[in-house]
Specification:
2 domains, globular, 8-stranded mixed β-sheet, 19% strand, 4-stranded antiparallel β-sheet, 434 residues, Alkaline Phosphatase, subunit A, Gyrase A, domain 2, alpha/beta
């Protein structure tokens, strides 16, 4: 038998409840009839896309990966900030590294935090133009796309495509992924369409728009399967259909930095802009990470904790609880340069502004403040599933629960690799015995 190949398709924000829609698509009947499944996958904290996808690929929690938010911390800014696009921020090895070290070929299309990843042969990173005048060729080449891949594949699909708009960006992703299968047949390919996530942000956790987005995801699943048939690799390809997180409906957003400013921990100039700060709240959607300019400043640490303790006790500031740095690491494997983590009450998102008013309505212009969003503790709300299908997968095997860090060790097992530093385990209950 030929060596196995693996394609991992992450449908951003797909949850178990969505599978009813996919199961009713005749083209996907073999996947659900012959595949294996985990119904509920507990993701990481915070449940946002970039940290989640690094954990899916590495099998490690954020305290090992070093990726704790989609965007970088930028005190004094409440608008767009740089995201964690590039792989050099990741502090651990992943499935791409293991595959490359074993002599396998690798590809990734819009898999987060893979910019300039040295172990990916055919790479189209999730990275977007930084200005209106940014040349699209430069955008992709500086994030790791080779000139050969640009010329042969990517350039044919980017013209007129507005990166980050959905569903059009997903068509780009699928076109590139299918061409990579056609021309290169990588041993490992990971791709990340995000149409379901966008639909939930726009219309709420469950809606007709979300159902349509799930059907589109099903059509893309079929398209990837068909691409392997056309390339002659279907018989030895295992398909893993995964997701990164669920979402919760929200009704408002709160600017925690207003509370820190009122406590004398943020100074503003005559124009109301940040002149200095001693503590800063960084929004991660349904959670927030509180950073100290000087983490060793015991007086500021105590002042911040007093603010958070009072806000939680009053019950009107959108906070269910806060974690100290030690609690976040011990309870959720979340560690970083922050000093506290604030968790939502379930219907409040957190924003970065330091200017009043404290409370704002939802805002469809930012994924963190739409009708539904994420970043919450992963024990809440709908959960992502995991579906495996292909050679060596145990037909009809079902687990009710696993952790998202179990996925990478399972992928490694399928490819005959190992990830000794992963926090998770291989889900061998879903695999046939060798």
């Amino acid at each position: 038998m030929k060596k196995k190949k693996l394609i991992v398709m992450s449908n951003d924000a797909l949850v178990y409840e969505d599978l009813k829609t996919l199961e009713n698509m005749p083209e996907l009947a073999p996947v659900f009839k012959e595949g294996a499944m985990v119904r509920h996958v507990r993701t990481i904290y915070p449940s946002v896309t970039y940290p989640c996808h690094v954990s899916i690929a590495s099998g490690c929690y954020p305290d090992k990966t070093g990726i704790v938010s989609n965007s970088v911390v930028k005190p004094g800014c409440c608008g767009p900030k740089p995201w964690e696009w590039f792989h050099d921020s990741v502090k651990c090895r992943d499935i791409f590294d293991a595959a490359k070290a074993a002599g396998l070929t690798t590809g990734a299309v819009f898999w987060p935090v893979t910019g300039n990843h040295p172990s990916i042969d055919w790479l189209v990173d999730e990275y977007w133009p930084q200005s209106e005048n940014d040349d699209m060729r430069d955008v992709f080449l500086r994030s790791g796309t080779s000139e050969e891949l640009w010329d042969r594949v990517v350039r044919h699909y980017v013209r007129g495509c507005h990166i980050r708009k959905h569903p059009e960006t997903n068509y780009l992703i699928m076109d590139c992924a299918c061409d990579i299968i056609k021309y290169y047949q990588p041993d490992l390919l990971m791709l990340h369409p995000a149409n379901i996530d966008a639909a939930r942000h726009h219309s709420g956790v469950f809606s007709d728009l979300v159902t349509d987005a799930v059907r589109s995801a099903g059509e893309w699943m079929v398209r990837v399967i068909t691409a392997t048939k056309n390339a002659g690799t279907f018989e030895n390809t295992v398909f893993a259909f995964v997701s990164d997180h669920g979402q919760l409906n929200i009704t408002r957003r709160i600017n925690l930095n207003v509370l820190l400013r009122e406590a004398g921990l943020i100074d503003v100039d005559e124009n109301g802009e940040v002149a200095d700060w001693r503590a800063w709240s960084h929004s991660v959607g349904l959670s927030a990470q509180i950073y100290l300019k000087n983490p060793e400043d015991a007086d500021t640490l105590q002042k911040v904790e007093n603010v958070l303790k009072q806000a939680v006790s009053r019950g009107v500031y959108g906070m269910e609880r806060y974690y100290t740095k030690q609690q976040a690491e011990e309870e959720e494997h979340l560690a970083g340069d922050f000093s506290f983590v604030v968790e939502t009450d379930g219907y409040t998102s957190f924003a970065d502004d330091w200017k009043e008013p404290l409370v704002h309505p939802m805002d469809l212009g930012d994924y963190r403040y739409g009708k539904a969003t994420h970043g919450h503790n992963p024990s809440k709300g709908p959960q992502p599933p995991l579906i495996l299908w292909g050679p060596g997968i145990k037909k009809g095997a079902v687990l009710d629960r696993c952790n998202i860090v179990d996925e990478a060790p399972t992928f490694a097992d399928i490819l005959g690799l190992s990830l000794p530093d992963a926090d998770g385990r291989s889900l061998r209950e879903l695999l046939e015995e060798a």
